[in-house]
Amino acid sequence: MAQLGRILILASLLASAAGALLGFAAGRTRSLDGLKWARRFAYLYCALIMGAALLMEYALLKHDFSVSYVAQVGSTTVPTWVTIVSLWSSLEGSILFWGFVLGAYILVATFLTRGQYAEYQPDAIGVWLSCAAFFSFLIAGPANPFITMPNPPLDGPGPNPLLQNHVLMAVHPPFLYLGYVGMTIPFGFACAALIKGRLGHGVLKPLRESLMLPWIFLSISIMLGGWWAYEVLGWGGYWAWDPVENASLLPWLTATAALHSIMVVERRGILKGWTITLVQASFLLVLLGTFMTRSGVFNSVHSFTQSAIGPTILGFLAAALVFSIALLAFRIDKLEVEGRIEGAASREAMFLVNNLLFVLLTFTVLIGTVFPLVVEAVKGKQMSVGRPYFDSMVVPVGAALLFVLGVGPALPWGRATRAQIKKALLPPIVTGVVFVIVGYLANVRAPWTLITLGLGGYAAHVTLKEMFLPMFQRMKRGDTVAAAFVEGQLRRGRRRFASYIVHACVVIAFIAIAVSSSNRQTTELHFQKGQTQQASGFDLTFLGVEERQEPHRASTVAKFAVSRNGKQVATLEPRMNHYERMREPIGSPDVYTTAAGDLYISLSNIDPAVETASVTVFASPLVVWIWISVIVMGLGALFGLIPARRERAAREAKEALAVDTTPETA
Amino acid sequence: MSTTMSTPTATDAMRKRTRLFMIGAFLVAAIAFGVIAASGINQNLVYYWTPTDLTKAGDKAYGATIRLGGMVAPGSIQKHGGSAVAFEVYDGGSRVPVRTSTVPPQMFRENIGVVVEGTMVRGGYFQSNRLMVSHNNEYKAPEKGHTMDQKQLRKMIEASDPAKQD
Fold first, then answer.
1. Minimal-distance CA residue of chain A relative to B22
2. DSSP assigned state of B162
3. Do B166 and A237 touch (CB under 8 A)?
4. ipTM metric
């Protein structure tokens, strides 16, 4: 089976390399036959690489320990779901999984753009398959999971226990990969546009949509990573500015900026080179993130081993960087500028501010993440950049972004009169003040959290007003509420509705993050069996210790009854999990979640013999809204991607939008 | 939506001035950002040191945030009232007395690899607010009379759970 795997990988390397050359050649000669053949090689590559990944999954499920990767991470004693997710639980498998996802993306992108965008498609295929060739090379060489074991073991150790500890770890990596790998597709379109020296309306739609989809996955994966940290690591928080977390955030920041600047290109025909740069930067930051998490330069939960893979990825990152910069340098002048920014108080100016803030954030996080690496490489001293750096830098910029999120959509495109601006900007202040007062009454005292509440209230007002504008206009014309909602929000102007859903969720997420971090209460308690103590308005009773056996682990569980105002509301069971492979146990907290806030118990010490336990209790308000808002945000953005039933309908919708929102077409 | 470019030269000059002004403002903002970021990083660096490094540094060790890694010296653990614990961290070469205010984790005991974060204070001990037990399974205690492999020790400090930075 290992040999078949190796053959598939080598064949995929050949197919992608040949297809890449054909693609670039067809782009140069504008040969339609060449394009056809490039497309066929793309399909062939996808079949081969996806086949190889499925073969590995089959070997894992069959417990075929003659395959090196199965021998490394497989085990007959773990549950089936752990066996399935083992494909991405360790280094070599995760790169094979990367290949699988890349194959799926290239397949869908090539198929959906067939027969269209003939100008851009050949070069785009060339870029995609070049990336594919690199990853096939990586799988065939430094990260080969298909090595035949001469003496196959009878059983394997199973994947890293930390990854088995929570089911979220099974879903987080696929989302991350769908986000990361998907950035290859818009990168291909952006490079193709540069090669052709034209970023016309034709390529904007596939560029935007192929950027939106990985952006959705990346957003959700960042949230899932935070949620996992919260549920598993036991320190009561969800974000620590760990290099691994930053690695997923960096491309998200530039991609978010690009999604906004694309709209300016669509409307005004400006910021073309800037948009392309942002798309390219997103892909390069994905490669940087892959290097940081896969090479072991930062030793943490996510970096599995040190190997030859790091330098290989770094080499590819350097090549992609040089390629992107060279393309930009030689071609950016060819992109024609069709308009300009009319004034400081216009929507496009706010888009520009938004973009600058996102780039500022990207640099802030990038510097803090990479600085220790550079110092270590140059001076040989080891250090890290502490959390206060990130907090103090990011919070003000985040508040500024929230401000722009509120003001931007209220302002019209192009020039606006003073009266228009006043009418748009003044009323939402009332909502902002209301939010601050409510927050203050609910014991929020931290200045930045109050600022966030004010700006969030302002933004919520503007967002909701803009969101339902088409519906209200239809109702004014005499439509019923239901008809106006279906016509104005669901059938036409879907993209507009979707983007305001995303904005509303961002506002909720901002408020939840600010309040949950500034108003968190921490209590350290020591319990004897049967003892009841108070923490943050809850009564906690320690019921005792229980030992539990599962096939892959043993647990020491501390049982707590949680009651509020004399009524029991939950039983919490923080625990210590013992895995065979690890000498030390892994603590696992337990959480009681309500809409108003979470009660979180983390075990720091437990003595089963005399039944005593030391715990840290965290009470954090609104945490659950972070997860909910990001999930709804992803669903909302996905809704915006649903194509209109007919192209004609789409055109009509566009015209209707132009008529509906009269102040916007000033 | 089309733009009219046939403007008189007066506005052209004005536009040029606006542009220069914009570039100037942008440069000032970029420099300001650079300065703020650099000082922000400088104030928040966490150094990874071994007891030998710390002893060598002498007076320079005071005040800086340090992540110190080593073994819990046998017989050095003293419990003070509440959750406070005092012990010594050694690496075969040097010993550093440590006082910590947090509840020690489940696995804390003699001869185990630990990483503590905090600062060296003038009283001659290391005041720590974080205590982590090393999760490194390959870790071995040093043989008598030998100093621990400093490289391996540094690796352990680096690998200490970075998520618990609170």
1. A344
2. G
3. yes
4. 0.75
